Amino acid sequence: MTREWWRDAVVYQIYPRSFQDSNGDGIGDLEGIIRRLDYLNDGTETSLGVDAIWLSPTFPSPMKDFGYDVSDYNGVHPDFGTMETMDRLIAECHARGIKLLLDWVPNHTSDRHPWFIESASSLENPKRDWYFWRSAKPDGGLPNNWRSVFGGPAWTLSEETGQFYLHSFLKEQPDLNWRNPEVERAMHDVLRFWFERGIDGFRIDVMGMILKHPELADNPVNPRWRPGDRERSSQIWLNNRNYPDVFGAVKRIRRVFDEYPEKTAVGEVFGTAEEISAYYGDDREPGLHLAFNFQFIHEIEPWHTPWDAEIMKRIVRDAERAIPAGSQPCFAFGNHDRMRFITRHNEDGRGVERARAAAIVLMGLRNTPFVYYGEEIGMEDVEIPEEQLQDPARLRTFGRDPERTPMQWDATPSRGFSEAEPWLPYGRADRNVDEQFADDGSLLSLYRAAIWLRKRTASLREGAYRELESLDGTWLFERGATGAAAAAYVALNTTGHAVRVAVPSPGTVALATLRSEEGRRVGQHIDLEPLGAAMVIADGERSILGR
Ligand code: NOJ
Q: Is 337 in the pocket of ligand 1 (CB under 6 A)?
């Protein structure tokens, strides 16, 4: 059996509005992405070397939630280009061996989607049951107690029929009723439409919420909630997230992917390691190829996971324990919904050092790593003046504009992004691709080296994960076939002092945050700088390099 491509891939997430503007409107577009593909992978080690791209939504949309409110699943938003540009993007990616994933939003449409407009028009409309419509309770109360992820009740009254509709996000994002077979069929057809056009797979938005309690029963209150905590945490999302029926729907989605060769599904899911693992399916029936594990970003809302070796070890131990045999985890240190990595880990001004170590850990782990655009050059959250804020979610909960600012290609006032006023302001000029590209000591060069090392090293791509004993505040793990001599070691130091970590077999430092260490022979131990990390390739591995 040939090995599936996603097992060895490094995936790069592009937020299309912010990657590259080609037509001077201040908004990134598909043509811009085409122009920048060689940066991502031109087949040589001077490029970043990513194997796949995931584009946040590119479909026609009123942009209330910047594309996560889709009004036509089978098109391209004019801000981004046309179907012709999309076809060219697919072809240009494939010409470089890059796979292209789009972002499928199955939980909800825009309230401007023709399905919802029809559904809202009358009680008898044939599409009425495509969404959730309920009357007020006899006492005038809302149909149930569910809250919107963005805050406020999950129900809004529609004047047309006097009933409420359910929206787990903005009121402009009504939830689809996946218990209606017509909805399921129509949404499956969206997948087929894009597979026929050559798309290699999808990141699936809000995977865990598409099937809810059949009677939409109230959620229990969260006894641990305290005033000041996020409002949505005031209840336990028992009946509308990871509800058991969702797993059947996931398996049926998988069958659509399997109608075509090599199509890949990556689900946005939240929960414990066990809940995440359930999305991979079981022995009898597969589910998603990959389910995100965001626990390095946050385990318990609203707190960020600290940069702490003991916590990270536990997260990976849990993930490895829970995941079904033959499946592999999928970690990320950032995305378009969360504060940038450096901003998150910069309490002592040493976020950049931690970002260097994170690149080594992410590429060293057994997983399909996802890198959010700009993380490779150390982009930070950008402070945005009130009048320039865009994200409607900020009105009720946290805003996400600071981590969505334009890619910083060079140090010029336009950062190489656009000739026009950009849709969001630019970040600091001194973090840019141009300068880091040429600098061997840069974060970009470290990312690039880590990605290419992973490609060349069988143990890093395919080897099992084993945690080895190490001092508190350090993390040492091995990647390799069980019992075989061939192996790679990854060592991380999350403390502020230098440490010495024992490694079980001799090898060579192949990658280190302190890059002058690379090439050094390692006998029994490796020295790590404060907050440093390194990857050692054991001598035995050399025989299978480039296998
Ligand atoms: C998760 C997406 O990542 C986020 O950006 C969006 O607002 C919600 N889903 C709703 O679609």
A: yes
Decide: 518 in ligand 1 pocket, CB within 6 A.
no
When comparing pLDDT for 344 and 396, which is higher?
344
Confidence tier at 484 by pLDDT (50, 70, 90): low
Closest residue by CA, ligand 1 atom 4: 337
The average confidence (pLDDT) of the chain is 95
Q: Is residue 231 part of a domain?
A: no
Q: What pLDDT, in 10s, does the model give residues 3-28?
A: 999 999 999 999 999 999 999 999 99
Residue 71 in 3-state DSSP? coil
Q: Are residues 93 and 121 in the same domain?
A: no
In degrees, rounded to 5, the angle at the alpha carbon of residue 501 between the alpha carbons of residues 495 and 504 is 150
Nearest CA to ligand 1 atom 2: 205
pLDDT recorded at residue 234: 92
CATH assignment of the domain containing 139: 3.90.400.10
CATH code, 306: 3.20.20.80
**Residue 206 Cβ < 6 Å to ligand 1:** yes
* 73 and 201 co-located in one domain: yes
Examine residue 546 and state whether it is found in any structural domain, yes or no. Answer: no
In short, whether 169's Cβ falls inside 6 Å of ligand 1 is: yes
Same domain, 347 and 377: yes
Burial tier of 71 (Cβ tally within 10 Å: 0-12, 13-18, 19+) = buried
CA of 68 relative to ligand 1 center, distance in Å: 6
Domain that holds residue 49: 5-108+181-213+242-394+403-451
Catalytic residue among 29, 69, 175, 205: 205
Give the relative orientation of helices 83-95 and 181-197 as an angle to the nearest 10 degrees: 60
Residue 219 lies in a domain: no
The predicted-structure confidence for 22-54, as pLDDT tens digits, reads as follows 999 999 999 999 999 999 999 999 999 999 999
% of the chain with per-residue pLDDT over 70: 97
* Nearest by Cα to 374 from 9, 14, 10, 11: 14
Task: Please confirm, yes or no, whether 259 is among the known catalytic residues.
Answer: yes
pLDDT-derived band at 544, boundaries 50, 70, 90 = very low
CATH number at residue 519: 2.60.40.1180
69/100 same-domain check:
yes
Q: How many distinct structural domains can be found in the chain? A: 3
**Cα–Cα distance between 351 and 435 in angstroms, integer?**
19
Specify the pLDDT at position 546: 40
User: What was the pLDDT predicted at 371?
Assistant: 98
Residues 288 and 432 occupy one common structural domain: yes
Question: Which residues, in sequence order, are bridge partners of residue 11?
Answer: 52, 370
Per-residue tokens: 70 = 């889709």
pTM confidence score: 0.97
Q: Return d(Cα 221, Cα 293) in angstroms, integer.
A: 26
273 within domain boundaries? yes
Residue 485 pLDDT: 67
Instruction: Kindly state if the Cβ of 205 falls inside 6 Å of ligand 1.
Output: yes
